[in-house]
Amino acid sequence: MEALRQKLDLDVPAKRDVSRNLLIATWNIKAFSSLTEKWLADDNDSPKRDYRGLWAITEIISRFDVIALQEIKGDLKALRTMMKTLGPDWQFLMTDVTRGDAGNNERMGFIFDSRRVRLSGLAGELVIPEDGVIGSGALQRQFARTPYAVSFLAGKDTFILTTLHVDFGSDSAGRIPELQGIAEWLYEWAGQANAYGQNFIALGDFNIDRHGDDLWQAFTSTGLTVPAELHGVKRSIFAKDNDPQLKKYYDQVAWFESGGKRQLNLDYVTAGSFDFVPLIYTETDFTKATKQHRLSDHYPLWAEFNCRS
Question: Domains in the chain: how many in total?
Fold first, then answer.
């Protein structure tokens, strides 16, 4: 476990109180649900997520100020155990489960360190207008899993995080309306803000296959910008090492870099991901296919900002 902590120290910026920084992250934790109450679940146990895997997840989450989670399921045993481990300074908000096949009995949520970040009043799920149209080529229905938006305050800076888990569906073309829909919705919403400096950030699992493909173009069509530091990092533990942009480019953190009120006013520093795979269950012969059920099949993505004290 010490190897995990040491690698986190190297890869993720430390939380600073002087010259204060802000660490925002997103993570799709595969089927984050129940828990086998053993340090190491065996072949006959269900679920395979055990205390060791949950300890690693908790240690990673503790390095951020606020993190958006996707694939929280109806059973909250693992989440509640994690929150007890994090301690009373940590809080969470989440949606109810989304019913139906596309909803997959999932929730979305935010976990945050209340010593460094506090709620600033807004929490809601985004729905499209009754006429069923956001824009040409976008959604003609509601999102399969409704985007979840929450506003926070860090120091003197307000920021609004909107997370979404796009429905993977039966083919990639079916994802384009949701991607274009969230892009257009955020563009309109950010433009209608009654003050500058609201700092809209989209983050989550958008199920984009490849950098530059039609899905990527839909997501970035209204000006949402993913920082360059995230262009070359793997999103999935099954992505190819030699070219992570070519496959399973699912997760993103993005914001508007221009457009008056839409423009991000936080001082962006850097961004990255964290590869936990070689650091956990090192004494076993577990493959990635095995580890995904104990940890996740996605890497967490993060972005660092400077904020006003």
Answer: 1
